[in-house]
Amino acid sequence: MPPTLKVRSPASTPMKMTLNAQLDSSSVGTKPPSKLVCALKKALGLGGRKEEEGDPSERERKKSQIKKLKEEMAQERYKYKQSQKNKGARRREEKRDLKRKIRFMYLALDIYENDWDGESRSDRLKREMKEGWREKDKKEKMELDSRLKLLEIEVRNLELTSREAEVQRLKELKGEDTISTEDARDRL
Fold first, then answer.
1. Domain spans of the chain, in order of start
2. C-beta neighbour count of 107 within 10 angstroms
3. What is the mean pLDDT of residues 156-166?
4. How many helices (H) and strands (E) does the chain have?
5. Is 8 exposed, middle or buried (0-12, 13-18, 19+ CB in 10 A)?
6. Which of 20, 26, 62, 121 has its CA 20 to 30 A from that of 49?
């Protein structure tokens, strides 16, 4: 257990003033204050080195999880863009196949039959193909959006839990500070 320092009046203590001066001068330079200075400052109630927020391994784990989720989101976006680029080639192939099918229908004289609304079979096939493409595009976009929303929710959840832990820690520290100030008053 570290030794406790008994101070009569904290405001007029020369040691406290020299510690503050040393800490102020050390903050100007590139070198951080020494451990001894921080320990003395903490013992005098001036605070020490900034304490780590929560367990460092826990924080690092959450940060790595958030990073992985963000990378996964970027990967999903990349896959979607690549599928959009490849879509043109697939659709050209489908058009070629439809033209072949229409040619065979001409040979079978099946193409001249009209539907009840006067639309030829070839026109109907082209329209259905384009409608199918639109539906498929909508479905892909909705799936991408839902996957991205789920990943974003996971990221936000992790960020909030880490912030909740930090807020809880700060509340505990504030409670400890009030207790320590009451103890200091009692000692005086």
1. 56-176
2. 9
3. 82
4. 4, 0
5. exposed
6. 62
